[in-house]
Design goal:
Keywords: Isomerase. Its EC number is 5.1.3.14. This is UDP-N-acetylglucosamine 2-epimerase (non-hydrolyzing). The chain is built from 16 helices and 13 strands. It is α/β, with parallel strands linked by helices. It starts with 6 loop residues before the first strand and ends in a 5-residue tail after the last helix.
Length: 378
């Protein structure tokens, strides 16, 4: 049993995806007796992070605000490490919580290690087996795992990955994924968008495809293939509408607009905040994405997902049948998408498969495990 009257738990995150998945954990920490919740953001992504903080009413006690235009991974790492070390020394938390696989995640764990502070890793144990895909996330999460004391694994498969790497079983807790907690809290069947075109689309009678693509490893020819395949799908299927919130990366935007701009029934829009994006997923029919988190979110809403990558660190979804790997070749992406549009049996098989990522109670399990780890079982 610790001597302090309250457990100090510091949550560290810096990007929109981390904030979404950590928000329900932070809220659960805040409402739990005996815990002092401290939030530190690096703001590795500034504007997109702030949108989520406002949505979930999270007010960080520490904001490093490290984002700079054109920042490199090395620059993010150095600025975040220097800032986080100072905060951890000042706060002296009993445990630092980090999430997933960003540069902030790894550096947060490293700064905690340098200060001999315990680390809890939310969304632990994901592995693609290829250190350069996704890049740099695959290495970030592996290194974070080496520095962590508690590993909150979303699935049995994630737990098995950690066991193979020598993590002690008693330090692994299967929780489900916190993204389901967050998603279920914001989706509303009667949701109205601020963007007129999103309200005007006939979701009942059209086949609506939600497209996202932004990964570094897809820049160049792979991304060109993706967008050309989408163009082929739209030109063949007159009942299809595509909605593409285009990432702010100038390289992504250049390729997207050169291939898809001006096409009938293709809507290139600005990136959406989390709440409208989640509700757009709920209204669409099919999701094409190279994102990681969407592979978990969309299946919980009964939406088939085609992954625009050559491998995934989320094989549970593939095994469950909610996700298929479409790769980055134009012909294969077209073939799989066209099949989902025109083959009801194939569509229903994916849409009705059981989501492997949990029941929306992951945050509750994480906080319970933290209390038990420090001997506070009341």
């Amino acid at each position: 049993m610790i001597n302090n009257s309250k457990l100090k738990i510091m949550s560290i995150f810096g990007t929109r995806p981390e904030a979404i998945k950590m928000a329900p954990v932070v809220k659960k920490l805040e409402e739990t007796d005996g815990i002092e919740s401290i939030v530190c953001v690096t703001a590795q992504h500034r504007e997109m992070l702030d949108q989520v903080l406002n949505l979930f009413d999270i007010r960080p006690q520490y904001d490093l605000n490290i984002m700079k235009p054109g920042q490199t991974l090395s620059e993010i790492t150095c600025r975040a490490l220097k800032g986080l070390e100072k905060v951890i020394r000042e706060v002296q938390p009993h445990m630092v919580l980090v999430h997933g696989d960003t540069t902030t995640t790894f550096v947060g764990a490293l700064a905690a290690f340098y200060n001999k502070t315990k680390v809890g890793h939310v969304e632990a144990g994901l592995r693609s087996g290829n250190m350069y895909s996704p890049y740099p996330e695959e290495v970030n999460r592996s290194l974070t795992g080496r520095l962590s004391h508690l590993h909150f694994a979303p699935t049995e498969g994630n737990k098995n990955n950690l066991l193979r790497e020598g993590v002690r079983e008693e330090n692994i807790i299967i929780t489900g994924n916190t993204v389901i907690d967050a998603l279920l809290s914001v989706v509303d069947d009667n949701y109205k968008f601020d963007i007129d075109i999103l309200n005007e689309i006939d979701y009942k009678n059209k086949k609506v495809i939600l497209l996202t693509s932004h990964r570094r490893e897809n820049l160049g020819k792979p991304m060109e293939n993706i967008f050309c395949a989408v163009k082929d799908v739209v030109e063949k299927n007159k009942n299809v509408e595509v909605i593409f919130p285009v990432h702010l990366n100038p390289k992504v935007r250049e390729i997207a607009y050169s291939i898809l701009d001006g096409l009938n029934r293709v809507h290139l829009i600005e990136p959406l905040d989390y709440e409208p994006f989640a509700n757009l997923m709920n209204k669409c029919d099919i999701v094409l994405t190279d994102s990681g988190g969407i592979q978990e979110e969309a299946p919980s809403l009964g939406k088939p997902v085609l992954v625009l990558r050559t491998e995934t660190e989320r094989p549970e979804a593939v095994k469950a049948g909610t996700v298929k790997i479409a790769g980055v070749e134009r012909e294969n992406i077209f073939k799989l998408t066209d099949e989902l549009i025109n083959n009801k049996d194939e569509y229903d098989k994916m849409a009705n498969a059981i989501n492997p990522y949990g029941d929306g109670k992951a945050s509750e399990r994480i906080v319970k495990a933290i209390r038990e780890y420090f001997g506070e079982r009341n």
